[in-house]
Structures are given as structure tokens and as C-alpha cells.
Request: fold
Amino acid sequence: MNENIKILVVEDDSDINNLLCKILSKQGYSVRGAFSGSEAKMCLEQYDFQLVLLDLMLPAISGEEIVSQIRKIKTMPIIVISAKLGQDTKIEVLKLGADDFISKPFDINEVLARVEAQLRRYMVFSNVAEKQSILRYKDLTLDLETVEVKVKGQKITLTAREFAILELMMSYPNKVFTKANLFEGVWKEEFLGDDNTVNVHISNLRSKLAKVAPDTEYIKTVWGIGFKMGE
Reply:
């Protein structure tokens, strides 16, 4: 089963890279190692991966830049493994779009467990998004074919942007989306900084949902990072 899952290991220390590739291959994954940011970029452009394990301190292109570039085009999980231990570093890479952070020195079993957890979530929600034309969250439904959104069975009218934001977030209900993720995913343009556009659309979307269900939180603010579907 795992041989269909391709993992890219980006780590400039050859001993660590080889170790990670070895333990992941033993689990049946198809693994490729990259030893620099530029090599990782080339691999990502040429092949499809289901997960990336990424060091931050890389030659040529930094890990942070790789995270940012991946998030412009792909949604697969990114697990950062780094000796940079500062809380600010963790928050920054999560803001950029990484899904998890493991500190060096790492425990092999922890790495495997986190890889499995991220893949399980990614594969399940990828399949849901592909196979179902109707997305559901609590008593909220979004029909991709009729382009209708209903709250407690009551239809609400959304703009095209609001619909696209909701579709993206409902497709990956456990994922925290940064403003950059949402802007680039919906507007298909580069996010150039602290633009208030996303906040305005999220606010309008919340207001329309709250008119029907004022006591239910559908879109949650994750402080310092972005937004996700509410718990």
C-alpha cells in the first residue's frame, strides 16, 4: 500500500538524509532524497510527492523559501525537521504553510508516527474532495455542482469569492489556512503582504452564516496564523 506514497526528504546532512530515507523505505514508502534547496525545487517540479520532510538550513535555497514555494502550487503535507528550536521559528514556518515541526535531535518512531498522521489526514481529505460533489461540515453543506450553500437546510447567497473560500476550507477542514494560502488559492495571484481583502471576505462570510446559525462557529481564527473550520 505504502509504495504508492512518494516522500521527498530534503536534508543537506547526508547521514541524516540517508537515515530518514532508510527508515521510511523500510515502511514501504517510495522515498527520494534531496541535499539542497535547489535540488528539492527541481524534484518538486518534476515529480508528484504526497509528503515532504524538510530541513530549514539548506544550501542555495532555504527551507523557509521551499515551504513558501510549495504552498503556491501544492497542498501535500510538509513536516519541518530542524535544529532551529526557537518558538518564533516554529510559528514562522507554520505561518508559511508547514503542517508540523519536529526538533533535532529527533526520535525515529516520532518521525514515523507524524508522517503516518499527516498522510492519513491528507489522503482522506484528498479523496473526500475528489469523490464528493457535496462538502459537509456540521450543518453546513456546499454543493459543487449546483454552486449552492445551505446552513441548516436554508440556502444562503454567497459571492463567487466567498464560495471559493468556503470550498477550499471545507475541502481541508483540519488545515489552518494563512491569509496568503487563501488569497493565492482563491484569487490566483501572489499575496503581497498584509492585505485586508481576505479579512473582509471572511468577515462577510461569517456574517451570512451567522444570520441563519448565530450560535455556531463555522470559521475559527487561529491567532497569529490564519483561519480554519471551527472545532
User: Anything to note?
Assistant: The chain has eight helices and eleven strands. The mean pLDDT is 88. The longest strand covers residues 6-10.
